[in-house]
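Listing S7. Sequence submitted for prediction.
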Amino acid sequence: MTPQVPHAGAMRLLDRVLSHDADSIVCVATSHRDPGNPLRRNGILPAVCGVEYALQAMAAHGALTGDGAAQLPGYLASLRGVTLEAERLDDVAEDLRVEARALSRAVRGFVYAFTVGAGGVALLSGQAAIIIPEHA
């Protein structure tokens, strides 16, 4: 099953959901190796772009654990404790494993811890807070 997320076309970065439960999700992505990845700049995909992969995993988790509708669009309110263990993602040969775990969820926002890794090695991690506006 492909969850409905508020991303389309080349900006849909995740390939599939490996697993999910009420609190967490694990996804796989191969788009980091695609020369046409829309986040690339001058042929390079900086590791910080892995945050977008994690945000999409969070949106997929919201859709899968909600009523099946697309996760409402939200705004990234904050990033905390982001650690980059790589400079770029486009040179990572393995598929990306994107994990997100809900720390707090409410009607108009949520906080997730996330890790993006490959080959058993964490490439970046941190926490993201998302606010969903009332008019969404």
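Caption to Listing S7: primary sequence and predicted structure tokens for the chain studied. The longest helix spans residues 50-65. DSSP finds one helix and six strands in the chain.
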